[in-house]
Design goal:
Helices cover 74% and strands 0% of the residues. By secondary structure, it is mostly helical.
Length: 532
């Protein structure tokens, strides 16, 4: 059943040799840098108690970050800060890894070729889960080592690392099962992403609930379990066993289904398409819209909701930093505005800009996917030119990113206006603060396009560039990185709005860099061999 497992596992790790280290660096680096930042920002017990009071007395902040259970150790505060978002990220990584090496391989036809050799039926699924397990094991081992090196209790550090990795294992099992049920990788990733989002909402709802509210809902989420391990403050080891059980059940079901279904088919019925294409599908740009619209709508809705939530807690920011000059200085350094609320809002708009850069890189990479999987050739066999085909997809990192930032700014403006008053004024200011991030987002899309046109086999390195520069932009201010390092990321050069001064010169330079890189990529696409 698992013949050829070693070869498939090595192949999977080789294919992920760029993406996986970048993700692990971000996941592990986030934990270590957060510990260092908390030590600098909250050096004494009094400042930590004020932080806990500011979080625990505000339902919106509890929903966003979770409640603070223990303030007596640096490790406990680090686990509190990392697990809600870090758990989402490691869960997303495992969903993508397992789908990539199971359903996506079947969809492309490569798994059928491998199956014609000496490969057992269960080997591909085992190799995919082994890759996800290796990623989780790296987090479970390295994070406790780093926390122990920072002087934290070893048992608590181990509990923290295992809780962090346990969320990933749960969603690896969920993704394995989704890959058996669906017929496409997009649907499998959709199921995994939807369940991950539901887990986050259940955790947020339970954490935000006051006395008599639905606090029990957090116990329905693996993210809530990870929080309630109470690393460094009780170490509820039995919850780690619950995570293993929650991972084992869907994994066992996935193995049972893998041996009973047809290769390439899913167990859930697929809705057949119409016999003839609609008139709206005539042309490359209509096809591009059909392929990209689902992703665009999903991202836009997420930006709108995220902006509203983040903007809605702006009133609580003043209370959160009250009496803590280090936090106020950090917010002002990240936001570059005069007031603390302006600094906070500028910071979240910068964060939404970074998220838009992820979307931009993802949509450019769709070009490589269409080419590598042979779907570009039938389009280019018609009267569509290479530049026309590329343009039908590049419209979305260019204009689609603007739609996302507009949605995020609108949501943040409505949220901030609801708690601060002057909804119209805040909406206009924050929509502008969102759109000003656009030239920096275009730079990341242009870098990926340049790789696609000039070095197509290295197109995935766009993720590596994105991850490295976003990590600098996100963690650099908290770690007091040198200005030369911060200048490497395009977002450093974006005017910090609201509250800052709008200067056009850096925006024009960023746009020029995008044009030069994008042009180089398009010229390379015109001259190179297709699927090269």
């Amino acid at each position: 059943m698992t013949a050829g497992l070693g070869v498939l596992l090595r192949l999977a790790l080789r294919r992920d040799r760029v993406m996986l280290p970048v993700w692990l660096y971000a996941l592990i680096g986030t934990a270590a840098s957060t510990a260092v930042s908390i030590r600098a920002l909250y050096p004494d017990q009094a400042s930590r108690d004020r932080l806990a009071a500011g979080i625990n007395d505000n339902a919106s902040l509890r929903a966003l970050y979770g409640p603070v259970y223990d303030t007596h150790s640096l490790g406990a505060l680090t686990a509190w800060r990392v697990l809600p978002f870090g758990g989402v990220m490691i869960g997303l990584l495992c969903v993508l890894l397992v789908t990539r090496h199971t359903r996506a391989e079947e969809e492309s036809g490569r798994l059928e070729l491998l199956g014609a050799g000496a490969v057992g039926r269960a080997a591909p699924l085992t190799a995919a889960l082994g890759t996800a397990l290796a990623a989780c094991a790296a987090v479970a081992v390295v994070v406790p080592v780093l926390m122990a090196a920072l002087g934290q209790d070893l048992a608590g550090s181990v509990a923290f690392g295992l809780a962090y990795a346990g969320v990933g294992l749960v969603f690896a099992g969920v993704s394995a099962l989704a890959a058996q049920l669906t017929g496409t990788s997009r649907a499998a990733n959709g199921i995994g992403g939807a369940l991950l989002g539901a887990a986050y909402l259940l955790r947020a709802t339970g954490d935000a609930a006051g006395d008599g509210g639905p606090a029990w809902s957090a116990w329905l989420s693996p993210l809530g379990w990870a929080e309630r391990v109470h690393s460094y403050g009780g170490d509820a080891w039995w919850l780690l066993g619950l995570m293993l059980l929650a991972a084992a059940v869907p994994t066992a079901a996935a193995y049972a289904l893998a041996g009973r279904r047809d290769l390439g088919g899913g167990l859930l019925p697929q809705r057949p398409g119409p016999a003839a294409a609609a008139p709206s599908l005539r042309g490359a740009y209509a096809l591009g819209w059909r392929l990209q619209r689902g992703s665009l709508f999903g991202w836009a809705a997420a930006f709108l909701v995220s902006g509203a939530v983040l903007g809605g807690i702006s009133r609580g920011i003043s209370r959160l930093v009250d009496g803590n000059q280090q936090v106020e200085q950090l917010l002002r350094r990240m936001g570059g505005a005069e007031g603390v609320v302006d600094s906070y809002l500028a910071t979240i708009m910068g964060t939404l800009g970074m998220a838009a850069a992820v979307y931009a890189v993802q949509t450019v990479l769709r070009l490589r996917g269409e080419e590598a999987e042979g779907r570009a050739e039938p389009v280019l066999a018609t009267a569509v030119t290479r530049l026309g085909w590329a343009g039908s997809h590049l419209l979305y990192p260019l204009a689609g990113s603007a739609v996302l930032l507009l949605s995020g700014g609108l949501g943040a403006g409505l949220g901030a206006g609801a708690v601060l008053g002057d909804t119209g004024g805040w909406t206009g200011r924050l929509v502008g603060a969102g759109l000003v991030q656009l030239p920096a987002v275009w730079v990341f899309a242009a870098v990926t396009l340049a790789l696609f046109g000039l070095a197509p086999r290295r197109t995935a390195a766009g993720w590596g560039v994105l991850g490295a520069l976003l990590l600098i932009g996100y963690l650099g201010p908290a770690l007091h990185a040198g200005q030369w390092l911060l200048d490497l990321t395009p977002f450093t050069h974006v005017p910090r709005l609201p509250g800052g001064v709008l200067t056009l010169r850096p925006l024009l330079w960023l746009t020029l860099v995008s044009v030069v890189l994008g042009t180089a990529g398009l010229l390379g696409l015109r001259r190179r061999d297709l699927a090269g």
